[in-house]
Hints:
The complex is a heterodimer of chains A (263) and B (223).
Chain A: H1 2-25, H2 29-36, E1 38-44, E2 46-47, E3 51-53, E4 59-60, H3 62-74, E5 77-83, H4 88-93, E6 99-105, H5 108-113, E7 114-121, E8 124-129, E9 145-149, H6 153-161, E10 167-171, H7 174-182, E11 188-192, H8 193-202, E12 209-216, E13 219-224, H9 228-244, H10 246-255
Parallel strand pairs in A: 1-5, 1-6, 9-10, 9-11
Antiparallel strand pairs in A: 2-3, 3-4, 6-13, 7-13, 8-11, 8-12
Helix pairs in contact in A: 3-9
Chain B: H1 9-12, H2 14-47, H3 53-65, H4 69-79, H5 89-114, H6 118-126, H7 131-161, H8 173-184, H9 187-217
Helix pairs in contact in B: 2-3, 2-5, 2-7, 2-8, 3-5, 4-5, 5-7, 6-7, 7-9, 8-9
Amino acid sequence: MRTSRFFRPLVLLGALGLGSLAPVAQADVLANITKAGVIKIAVPQDFPPFGSVGADMKPSGYDIDVANLIGKEMGTKVELVPVSSANRVPFLTTGKVDLVISSMGKNAEREKVIDFSSAYAPFFNGVFGPDDIKISKIDELAGKTVSVTRGSIEDLELSKVAPASAVLKRFEDNNATIAAYLSGQTQLLATGNVVAAAVHERSKQRSLGVKFLVKNSPCYIGLAQGETALQNKVNEIIQKAKKNGSLNEISQRWLHAALPADL
Amino acid sequence: MTYQFDFSFIYEYRAMLAHGIAYTVYLTLVGGTVGTLIGTVGAICRTWDIKPFAGLYQCYVELFRNTPFLVQLFLIFFGLPSLGIRMSEGQAAILAIILNVGAYSTEIIRAGLQATPKGQIEAAQSLAFTRWQIFFYVMLRPALRKVWPALSSQIVISMLGSAVCSQISAEELTFVANFIQSRNFRAFETYFLTTAIYFAMAFLIRQSLNLIGRYAIVRRPLP
């Protein structure tokens, strides 16, 4: 008895130590989600078409559809948590959400603190144009006119690698760049795929299809580090959604373009 | 104030700068010359009320003097293609400047023509001048002499206004300045240099127009 009383503080200390290690060592978020029947997913609310709040005050967009798809595949309810691009990573690292589906790109700084699934949405800068101009790589820009916003990523990249006979028409802002294309002043348009989708949606003046990518940084689902089981599950769901066309459907709905084959 | 000026970019972009200066000079010379011709014809039509041109000119002048140059430029470049009239940015820029100078110079020259004293015309008639001689020697030339300083100013203003053409990707001096600034982010130096170039160009154009006025228009010193 005396010994046990003597060791009691030590046991307590040991338990505390184990307890503090626990979330890192063996907390299985996937198991918790399955047990609770609810998955908490951070989604954007101010970044259409990936996520925005509609007139009915409900978030909708590409990311919300993917979140619901994952919830359906896992057989759990989905609790959407609106986040901003600044606080989406802290929400994940402090365990307030299980997944971040918030049009997030992968980079070295983020990879230090969180893990990523495979890519689930295309996000790129590219050259867009009408169906009757058949080009598929940058060398074929020779002799073509392209409208581009001065100082943008597209401008800097194309200025470096486009053939000398390609004519880059540089405009002050996105609107002028788009207007130049839509009014037929240039043959092609260099911009982001999200911008191109919005233009395509609002204007039927000229068809707008992707010709080739200038810079690619697709979106990934973020999850807490070390959650291999959850990561595998999410990757499996993405893989399945790519194969059975449901992710392509979401892409068509929000980006008005098929999912790129190399995503 | 420890700002470090760095003008080394001038050498790197010298070809572009030269091209931008040449483009602006071209816009000013062609726009100024053709615009003044349009204005002269317009002033004549309006002074003698030659139908139907006087009415047409009046609409044109009111339209162009009461709308911003930038909007005129956008209308020509972005708007007209919808009607099937497609112009390159160079054509749109020069057309907009010509039309703009034309509208203002119509009113400037008209003021000069209408200031011709009636007695002067009657004196010429009594000296058996032909109608053409009266028009040219008694009315137009003295009119141009009177309004030459105002006309010169208008041409310099249109040169400064041509900076707006950078908005439709016409690669004149301001476009070049914006381009350089978007690559080296040295806004102060870039626009400092551009300001100096514009100032020098405006000065030279004004001096040249003074000389032209002195020797070609009146053939005697301006009052």
